[in-house]
Design brief:
CATH class of the largest domain: Alpha Beta
Largest sheet: 5 strands, mixed
Number of domains: 3
Strand order of the largest sheet: 3-2-1-6-13
Structural class: alpha+beta
Number of strands: 20
CATH superfamily of the largest domain: ATPase, nucleotide binding domain
CATH topology of the largest domain: Nucleotidyltransferase, domain 5
Radius of gyration: 23 Å
Distance between the termini: 34 Å
Strand content: 25-35%
CATH architecture of the largest domain: 2-Layer Sandwich
Bound molecules: adenosine-5'-triphosphate, magnesium ion
Shape: globular
């Protein structure tokens, strides 16, 4: 969802780009500097507790705005760089999804070559048909193209046909919530340059052509929601928003040890470990004898470390089951050669990646390693948002394309126009 640039500078693009990932647990900010078209140097990251937000609605705009300020101030103070606008990303709680379809005629009689304009037109139709009055389309992700009722695996451009059908997953946000979000960002002293769906920005930046074609599962394990996306043959083949994340695990630890949420959160991060899923639950991972001391009213009490693992086991199983179901529904079970790619703070839980590997029988890797950053899983989305900001500018086009690319682009456009009208 791109707003209208407010200045030529914003349209052309500058040297610094800031991504702001609005999560239900933390607001994360990343500041990147353009080195060249292929390299964006990460200058600083920062996070702040999310406040003033309940179930994706802003219930206290000054609280929400001050947590955005806190996240942004951290990066700006570390780097002493001023930025005016931010590239905002919305997480699972903020968005709804809906499948939409559109069928457009390409030509009255005979057939014609499908062009990029036809694709754009069909997608535009699907967006218009699927959106309600109180919603805005944050992005659309194509799931299928059909030319003359025949499924086209990758890209229909260049094929002859009479009609083009597209099926897309619309990612939608409530207009009032978006307005309030923009207002909160402005109150914090910044402008919203554009708004993306976090998982879309992350997959655009982290999954290369091989991942998408060979097939992979992308999982964002957040605090309240986990998003599962399946890609194959270059397109999105499955999606599910699961209302399970790190918060639920913390709640289960808090309930089973009878301790406050914040203490359970600290203990989860320091001592939590996921069972490997291979062995018998009663004697797994050799942790049963290990004890930790927890501060309670009466003083310190010893707790077996495996009690933490057992408390979160139902949540881990739920996540594994959901991943399995989405993959099965996509129809590509056993064919996703690039495995599972995970991001989000939830994936930092010790042993989780190994457990996912065991449950799904697929290799699991982190979306992105950021050298020098321990918690890359937390910041890789805000970093992707900053990069997306740069990639949407004219400056990126100028930086990345050689004169030959411009010439090839011009020739392709001329060919497209000649196919369209002659
Ligand atoms: N080192 C760690 N070990 C275990 N869990 C962790 C660790 N660091 C963060 N988490 C968990 O990650 C979750 C927060 O992740 P993240 O910042 O990606 O969520 P969010 O983006 O705010 O939430 P959402 O995407 O659901 O809106 C919390 O539940 C937190 O407990
Ligand atoms: Mg998130």
């Amino acid at each position: 969802m791109k707003g209208i640039p407010r200045s030529i500078g914003q349209f052309f693009g500058g040297q610094y780009y800031c991504g702001l990932d609005i999560g239900s647990f933390k607001v994360k900010a990343s500041l990147n500097r353009v080195v060249d078209a292929q390299t964006l140097e990460l200058l600083a990251v920062n996070e702040a507790d999310t406040r003033g937000l309940a179930a994706a609605s802003i219930n206290d705009i000054s609280d929400f705005s001050s947590c955005i300020s806190a996240a942004m101030d951290g990066v700006l103070r570390k780097t002493r760089i001023k930025v005016r606008d931010v590239h905002v990303g919305l997480g699972g709680e903020f968005i709804d999804t809906r499948l939409s379809r559109a069928l457009i005629p390409l030509v009255e009689r005979g057939n014609k070559i499908v062009t990029a304009r036809d694709l754009h037109h069909a997608r535009q139709q699907a967006r218009m048909l699927g959106v309600r009055l109180d919603e805005e389309v944050v992005c659309d992700m194509v799931q299928q193209f059909k030319v003359d009722d025949v499924n086209i695996a990758l890209n229909p451009i260049g094929l002859y046909g009479r009609k083009l059908e597209v099926e897309t997953l619309l990612v939608l946000a409530n207009i009032t919530r978006l307005r309030n979000l923009t207002k909160a960002v402005q109150q914090a002293g910044f402008e919203v340059n554009d708004v993306h769906f976090n998982a879309w920005a992350a997959t655009e930046l982290m999954l290369d052509r091989r991942h998408r074609n060979d097939g992979c599962v992308f999982v964002d394990l957040g605090a309240r929601t986990s998003l599962v996306l399946v890609f194959k043959e270059g397109l999105l083949k499955g999606f599910r928003k699961v209302e399970v994340g790190g918060d639920l695990m913390t709640q289960h630890i808090a309930a089973s040890l009878n301790i406050p949420f914040q203490l359970a959160e600290d203990i989860k991060k320091s001592y939590g470990r996921v069972l490997d899923g291979k062995s018998d639950l009663t004697q797994d991972v050799g942790l049963s004898s290990e004890e930790i001391l927890i501060k309670k009213d009466a003083g310190f009490v010893p707790v077996k470390r495996d009690a933490l693992s057992h408390a979160i086991e139902p949540d881990i199983r739920l996540i594994s089951d959901q991943i399995r179901q989405v993959v099965a529904l996509s129809g590509y079970e056993g064919q996703l050669k690039s495995g599972i790619v995970v991001v989000g703070g939830g994936s930092l839980l010790a042993g989780l990646m190994e457990r996912m590997e065991n449950d799904a029988h697929m290799p699991v890797s982190l979306g992105r390693n950021i050298p020098g950053l321990n918690s890359a899983a937390v910041y890789c989305i805000s970093t992707s948002l900053a990069e997306m900001g740069y990639k949407n500018t004219l400056r990126y086009k100028l930086d990345s394309q050689k004169p030959k690319d411009w010439w090839d682009g011009f020739k392709a456009k001329a060919e497209e126009l000649s196919n369209e009208y002659f």
